[in-house]
């Protein structure tokens, strides 16, 4: 069963999930009949390493909610409802039962749940709020209201600062210090633009910063501090989730660098080095990267966090130390990029940067397919993943990719065979085994030409690892 905790100090939370008629109009409580028969509920998924969660009320699915997202506020008759939470199993018609409970919806009350914690047994914060507080005549005159809650599974304390947009911590005073599962009081802010800064307690060490937060008079938001694991790092990533009238979304963490990996698909050069121009000199990022391999993750600090940095990169032959190609990337803070390279040094090298979703899922493996076959650049490739021993003719491709793009696919642990087809001709280009796939793994599979170019093509696998438990 869920551990449902009523947090009385979070009574203001309903404001964070509800806009009045002057805003988005998701629900206009002023139009409701004042007959005492209506209540409300809403659900937020902050279980970081979980799949999509299905919320089922009285045997009917209310919503499927991904990590960092929320359902809308729903108006229902007062009374008691059966509540079931299921993990939506990726690429399956089945779902996995997590827990059940009941909700007793009171009249003129919003019942709100935040799901957090372990993927197989998440807990929930339950908040009950009297909607009459929304009609305070002073509320919508010249200020907005914000509140913070700490559900980061790092379980650390954090200081919360709110400063004007573009400002820093100089002369700033923390609004509050939040322990794990603790929430701030509501904070009144004049309408305008602000910056949220989260630091380690009692220090100026910033773990999250998000600029240009818009506060409007008469509106309110809840900001949740979260952490989540990615497959390529031993350090959890930090973020703020903004919850407003009808949705939740993860804000860019300006305090985090850009994260880059270089995917070597230049088939007639076995070993390359990668450099970046710092303005004064070339700085080495990667040495002796072999054909078909992905580099270790590189953290690149971003100077212009608002517009991003433009950086020049150099691909160098590891043996001759000659530059074989240069390229420029526009890079933003908190981005996660796979720099795909393909083609031939002797003719043309082609490059594209693609965003990677490396967040791990505890119950499933994640496959990231990439199309880097230069000979097939005019055509898309179909990637089919089936259980070992299954007939591929009985299945359809799960992912179709154009040249130098990537796509992810989540699958249960087990032994599989991968088939890669030319979408236009239907020709089978590659067939490879993928044995021993485990839950929680993230695996990059990149289709390239064979060494020295041309067919037979190659499918390179990289199993990403992290030491975080």
Short account of what is shown:
This protein has one helix at residues 13-16, and strands spanning 4-6, 38-46, 53-57, 60-65, 69-70, 74-77, 79-88, 95-105, 109-116, 123-130, 143-150, 158-164, 176-178, 187-190, 192-199, 206-215, 220-228, 237-243, 248-251, 258-263, 271-277, 282-290, 298-300, 309-317, 323-331, 336-343, 349-355, 365-372, 381-387, 399-401, 406-411, 414-422, 428-437, 442-448, 458-464. It has 469 residues and is mainly beta. The protein has 3 domains: 4-251, no CATH class; 257-356, Immunoglobulin-like (Sandwich); 363-469, Type VI secretion system, lipoprotein SciN (Immunoglobulin-like).
Task: Kindly describe this structure.
With 469 residues, the chain is mostly beta strands. It folds into 3 domains: 4-251, no CATH class; 257-356, Carboxypeptidase-like, regulatory domain (Immunoglobulin-like); 363-469, Sandwich (Immunoglobulin-like), CATH 2.60.40.4150. The chain has 1 helix and 35 strands. The chain has one helix at residues 13-16, and strands at residues 4-6, 38-46, 53-57, 60-65, 69-70, 74-77, 79-88, 95-105, 109-116, 123-130, 143-150, 158-164, 176-178, 187-190, 192-199, 206-215, 220-228, 237-243, 248-251, 258-263, 271-277, 282-290, 298-300, 309-317, 323-331, 336-343, 349-355, 365-372, 381-387, 399-401, 406-411, 414-422, 428-437, 442-448, 458-464. Strands 1, 2, 5, 6, 9 and 10 form a 6-stranded mixed β-sheet that branches. A hairpin with a 6-residue loop joins β7 (79-88) and β8. It is globular and about 75 Å long.
């Amino acid at each position: 069963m869920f551990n449902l905790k009523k947090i009385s100090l979070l009574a203001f939370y309903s404001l964070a999930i509800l806009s009045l008629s002057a805003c988005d109009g998701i629900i206009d409580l002023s139009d409701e009949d004042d007959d005492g028969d209506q209540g409300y509920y809403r659900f937020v998924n902050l279980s970081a390493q979980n799949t999509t969660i299905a919320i089922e009320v009285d045997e009917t699915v209310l919503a499927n909610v991904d990590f960092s997202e929320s359902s809308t506020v729903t108006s229902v008759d007062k009374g008691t409802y059966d509540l079931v939470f299921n993990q939506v199993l990726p690429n399956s018609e089945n779902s996995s039962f997590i827990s059940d409970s009941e909700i007793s919806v009171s009249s003129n009350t919003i019942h709100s749940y935040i799901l957090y914690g372990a993927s197989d047994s998440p807990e929930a914060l339950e908040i009950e709020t009297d909607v009459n507080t929304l009609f305070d005549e002073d509320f919508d005159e010249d200020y907005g209201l914000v509140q913070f809650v700490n559900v980061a599974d790092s379980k650390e304390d954090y200081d919360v600062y709110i400063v004007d947009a573009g400002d820093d911590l100089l002369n700033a005073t923390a609004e509050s210090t939040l322990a794990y599962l603790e929430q701030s009081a509501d904070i009144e802010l004049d309408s305008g633009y602000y910056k949220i800064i989260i630091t380690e307690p009692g220090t100026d060490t910033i773990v999250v910063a998000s600029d240009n937060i818009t506060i409007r008079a008469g509106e309110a938001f809840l900001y949740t501090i979260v952490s989540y694991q990615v497959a390529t790092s031993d350090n959890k990533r930090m973020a703020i989730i903004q919850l407003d009238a009808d949705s939740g979304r993860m804000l860019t963490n300006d305090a985090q660098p850009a994260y880059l990996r270089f995917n070597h698909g230049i088939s007639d050069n076995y070993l390359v080095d990668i450099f970046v121009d710092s303005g004064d000199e070339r700085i080495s990022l990667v040495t002796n990267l072999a054909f078909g391999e992905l580099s270790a993750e590189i953290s690149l600090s971003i100077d212009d966090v608002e517009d991003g940095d433009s950086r020049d990169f150099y691909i160098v032959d590891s043996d001759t130390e000659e530059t074989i190609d240069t390229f420029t990337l526009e890079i933003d803070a908190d981005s996660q990029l796979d720099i795909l390279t393909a083609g031939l040094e002797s003719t043309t090298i082609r490059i594209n940067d693609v965003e990677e979703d490396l967040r791990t899922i505890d119950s499933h493996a994640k496959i990231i397919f990439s199309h880097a076959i230069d000979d097939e650049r005019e055509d898309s490739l179909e990637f089919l993943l089936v259980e070992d021993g299954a007939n591929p003719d009985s299945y359809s491709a799960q992912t179709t990719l154009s040249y130098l793009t990537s796509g992810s696919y989540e699958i249960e642990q087990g032994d599989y065979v991968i088939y890669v087809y030319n979408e236009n001709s239907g020709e089978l280009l590659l067939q490879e085994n993928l044995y021993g796939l485990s839950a929680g793994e993230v695996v990059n599979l990149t289709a390239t030409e064979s060494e020295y170019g041309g067919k037979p093509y190659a499918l390179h696998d990289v199993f990403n690892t992290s030491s975080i438990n």
